[in-house]
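Backbones bend. Our protein:
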Amino acid sequence: MIRLTLMTLLAIGSAIDLASADDAYDVPPINYASTAPRDAMAALNRRLASGKLHLQYEPAHGYLKSLLKALDIDTTTQVLVFSKTSFQIRRINPDTPRAIYFNDDVYVGWVLGGDVIEISTVDPKLGGVFYTIDQQPPEADAPPTITRRFGECMQCHTSPMTQSVPGHMVRSVITDPQGFLQLRAEATVSDGRTAFGERFGGWYVTGTHGDMRHRGNITMPRKNTDEEDLDLDAGANLTDLSSKLDVAPYLSKHSDMVALMVLEHQTHMHNLITRATYRTRIALDQEEQMNRALGRPPGSVSEHTLRRIQRAGDALLRYLLLVDEEILEDPITGVGGFTEHFQKQGPFDDQGRSLRQLNLRKYLFEYPCSYLIYSESFDAMPGPMLDYVYRRLYDILTGRDRDAPFDAISTAKRRAVLEILRQTKSSLPVYFFKD
């Protein structure tokens, strides 16, 4: 038997502390900076290098249109943010907001007259990975310069706002008329659980929402210091942005409310998947260190490590199944075509049902399971995490598990989600198909 010394125990304890720190991901087992991504931008770079893809530059938008087409991102996803919460802050204000475009695993930020296009992706193992594309006219047929970014991106994108893993966030902030944060105490990170009245600060929002009010479309004069001074009615039920800014330079006239709410849901879901992946990889790595120190067989997993994995899995499941989703007091309607674009992507079961089907009356989604269950990052979670999530998900959907908070999901909704998944997700464990 190997006798553990005090120094060995301290070394293992230090590794545990280090692995949970925000700046620890450049070391094993994550190796964030030194690991080559397997994300959408890595695939795009390969196509550029092979000559199979050429990004076209045009003066008004640089590489934006060509990039969106190459990444299969629709312009109906456009949302506009005027708060100075990007590193290109000198070019962003309520007259020239930053435009965000997205699909299931890529986010593209474009600033009018900006030096670069900002891109962030979701890598199956690394989580958020960040890039820029220089917006300078190309020389001859030279491809644009694409740079993977760390530094300034990681200050915000690996923080408590992103579950302390490399990720993404939608912030709701109150700004002055120039876009600077006015009431920092009222800033929040929005996701599918956030109260409607606390959302969209610093964003333009087009769509109708009845008597509900949000923080979008408005600013607060510097002389005011109280949230009660906000004129929420001035930003309500806006379907046309022409009174707020010149929309001609942008690819869409809208900043669709439904798109923004889907973006809020999606960013937090991605962060929870990344968090579950990181926590599992770190826990298993630390377990192997302990196994070596104790002389135990490789691959042994203690109850303590399993509980660490399960805690991260439970947080993921809770959000995946939308049990804390904000209940809408009035129906909402987007403008600009995003609702139709999003819903038609499917996949659909033989009854025409889909996890992308929107409700928009009481809830954002019709069926209580996130469509990101289809994502590559979900499928790439480490085996122990994926096994735990699937087994618990099966028990919840079949009614075997009716513990809180999942007891709020009706039998009909559980059955519908189970039926949809059986027909649309090929990688389900075989036990999902038992009656």
